[in-house]
Design a protein that fits this description.
Elements lengths: L12 E7 L13 E8 L2 E5 L2 E5 L3 E5 L5 E4 L6 E7 L1 H11 L14 E3 L2 H15 L5 H21 L7 E2 L2 H12 L5 H7 L4 H12 L3 H19 L5 H8 L4 H12 L3 H10 L2 H12 L1
Antiparallel strand pairs: 1-7, 2-5, 2-7, 3-4, 3-6, 4-9, 5-8
């Protein structure tokens, strides 16, 4: 899914600190080059038929034509996220000969682990730069330097294996779960030419979470989008449209993943609560 990031027109990109929110997402891509620097915890990126296990110190680059999705985050997961507009990427690449960053969808892996001093150096820079967000000329200069330094430190880090290849059946299951919310496990397995039990085992092995948990995350993502788009529709109708089989199932999953009831979530939307503002901000940025 192609997304448009909500970046101020005067800025060449943005940097922000992300902590695990529990908010489900869809596979997506955007025109901006993206950088992730993991500070704590573990997670898994699904990217172009492969999965990447992220740990403390992982530095990963995500390119404009690469669909990607972060799943299976540990409770303590946190990272810096940076996005850079195409014209800034071109300028920096020409200045420091970082030509791989100009690619739209490279085939090789772009995930390495930085040693602690290198990671700490980038973290200090990102923190300092974020303090100048309202000063666009200074912030843009800082973004260019941050991009150049991140690429240099990444290039110096030890190269890692090219991620874990996902079988075609798992790739197809991910696509179907994203696009067809009402598929039963039996129907899903049939379309993937696997038995339900074998597909479930493969999915957990290569994605890092159970098929049921992933399906419920996608349903919750649909529900949140529907809830924002149709504030006056019944919660049951929205839950069923999102793919849940009953309100009881929906309520149980929602409370477990979001930490509040669906009615409280809707009330927060009506009151303009901070949680909803943050969710909208994440949707725009991610």
């Amino acid at each position: 899914m192609k997304e448009t990031l909500d970046l101020p027109s005067q800025l060449d990109g943005s940097l922000w600190l992300y902590r695990r929110s529990g908010v489900p997402r869809f596979m997506h891509r955007h025109d901006e080059l993206e950088l992730n620097l993991v500070l704590s915890g573990t997670g898994t990126y699904l990217l172009r038929g492969r999965s990447y296990r992220l740990t403390e110190g992982s530095l990963v680059w995500l390119f404009p034509e690469q669909d990607h999705l972060l799943v299976n985050e540990s409770p303590d997961y946190s990272m810096w996220i940076g996005v850079f507009r195409p014209h800034l990427v071109q300028q920096v690449c020409q200045a420091i000969a970082a030509h791989p960053l100009c690619a739209a969808a490279p085939q090789e892996s772009f995930c390495r682990t930085l040693a602690f001093p290198q990671r700490e150096r980038l973290e200090r820079l990102f923190t300092e730069l974020s303090a100048h967000y309202d000063n666009s000329p200074l912030y843009n200069l800082g973004l260019a330097f941050a991009l150049a330094l991140a690429w240099r430190l990444y290039s110096e880090a030890e190269q890692q294996p090219y991620g874990t290849w996902m079988p075609p059946s798992v790739q197809k299951a991910l696509r179907l779960l994203r696009d067809e919310e009402t598929l039963t496990l039996s129907a899903l397995a049939k379309q993937c030419y696997q038995s339900p039990s074998h597909l479930s085992r493969l999915f957990h092995k290569y994605v890092g979470m159970s098929l049921a948990d992933y399906r419920n995350q996608q349903r919750l993502h649909r529900f949140r989008r529907l809830c924002l788009a149709y504030p006056h529709r019944e919660l049951l109708d929205l839950a069923l449209e999102a793919g849940f089989g009953s309100y009881a199932q929906f309520h149980r999953v929602f409370v477990r993943e979001m930490g509040l009831s669906p009615r409280q979530y809707r009330k927060n939307i009506e009151e303009g609560a901070l949680e909803v503002v943050q969710a909208g901000r994440e949707t725009a940025r991610k």
